[in-house]
Amino acid sequence: xxxxxxxxxxxxxxxxxxxxxxxxxxxxxxxxxxxxxxxxxxxxxxxxxxxxxxxxxxxxxxxxxxxxxxxxxxxxxxxxxxxxxxxxxxxxxxxxxxxxxxxxxxxxxxxxxxxxxxxxxxxxxxxxxxxxxxxxxxxxxxxxxxxxxxxxxxxxxxxxxxxxxxxxxxxxxxxxxxxxxxxxxxxxxxxxxxxxxxxxxxxxxxxxxxxxxxxxxxxxxxxxxxxxxxxxxxxxxxxxxxxxxxxxxxxxxxxxxxxxxxxxxxxxxxxxxxxxxxxxxxxxxxxxxxxxxxxxxxxxxxxxxxxxxxxxxxxxxxxxxxxxxxxxxxxxxxxxxxxxxxxxxxxxxxxxxxxxxxxxxxxxxxxxxxxxxxxxxxxxxxxxxxxxxxxxxxxxxxxxxxxxxxxxxxxxxxxxxxxxxxxxxxxxxxxxxxxxxxxxxxxxxxxxxxxxxxxxxxxxxxxxxxxxxxxxxxxxxxxxxxxxxxxxxxxxxxxxxxxxxxxxxxxxxxxxxxxxxxxx
Length: 520
Prior knowledge:
The protein is α+β, with helices and mostly antiparallel strands. The protein has 3 domains: 4-213, GAF domain (Beta-Lactamase), CATH 3.30.450; 214-337; 342-520, Histidine kinase-like ATPase, C-terminal domain (Heat Shock Protein 90, 2-Layer Sandwich). It is 51% helix and 16% strand. The chain is built from 11 helices and 13 strands. The protein has a 6-stranded antiparallel β-sheet. A hairpin with an 8-residue loop joins strand 10 (418-426) and strand 11. Helix 2 (20-50) packs antiparallel against helix 3 (56-71) and helix 9 (388-411) runs antiparallel to helix 10.
């Protein structure tokens, strides 16, 4: 539809023109060019609309509005073919199940939006087979040779003339762009058919993009679900490993605690007897007068000399047993009370010693196992800043793996197992990034796996993540002369850097209360 000012300009030009035939030819060319430019602009708007990130029904409704306004039609419907419901339908008889997905209607025209259009006739005559993939042009339903049932159906929808263009999704028929004239017949022009074909191509591209986007979203959702499942599996595996490690640890600690408890219980009986004997001796001494011969006889009977020698030893043994229990309890408290999400200042040597206390039952000799010799080569370290529970898990995992590996080699006929713990402080000359190095080594036989051991199992992966979370590095090596070594390097914050005191170093050189073979 041309604007009023454009008609006025043409009227003024016609008044001044002497050759009316030339004017009409010029007018036809101008109008045709103007319509083509305008339709190109509409196509551009439609293309822009089809690229909007909104739902398909909303976009198609906007496309229907643009097409209806451009062609001055009474109704424009985008009809979608229901592929699932048409699986068992016979397309040759025109019995297709369709749904009007989007619509634009003029005032006074009945809406058929979301209506189930069945049957939808594609044939132009009773003798011509249906060709839904081709454009159908009907200028007047009463002069098109349509079957009577098709005309009745079109009358029910108020259709007098129609133009139906197929819409494809890839190579599959998706639906149709159905342009209808309801008030009167309409002779569809060739340029209108060409323009509708271009609109169909744009919609086809949009449908293809929508399909690709839907597939991408489905794959993204599937990947997210797989990632969530993997994350849940990792968490579950980590929990199972933690529970298994905790179960072994608790079982070992319970066994380790049973020895000092049994020792205390059995020796308390002797201590009670010694105390009762001394009390009886005091009571006799308090009796007046006490014959010297009778007193000497009581001293011999009570074996006072042995009692004076054994009673202090018994008390010292009870004290050592109680101290051993105190160490176990403190180590358990340190492992259980660490806050997982709170940064703390950590003494790495204390964490190592506490873990050794908990794992002591795996280090001690038994009738079947000669024990593991623990060698400590500690340097002076500043306090670290990190997550206490995770560093405890790291140390416990690495020590447990090393101990179990040494025990396995001993069962294979190999002797003299040793576990070596080394620590060093590496200062930064510029003071920006000092680091702490911890080495956990053993003297197992030479491995044939190369210089660097690939520790790819879940437990070592977890240890590696803990070290990386603290900004450090973890490496595993096989020594040329035998033995393996786990090298952990952790950074120390300059703000948290604390120079170790001499008292701390002297206290570390005191004898270890655990019955371990220790060299420093």
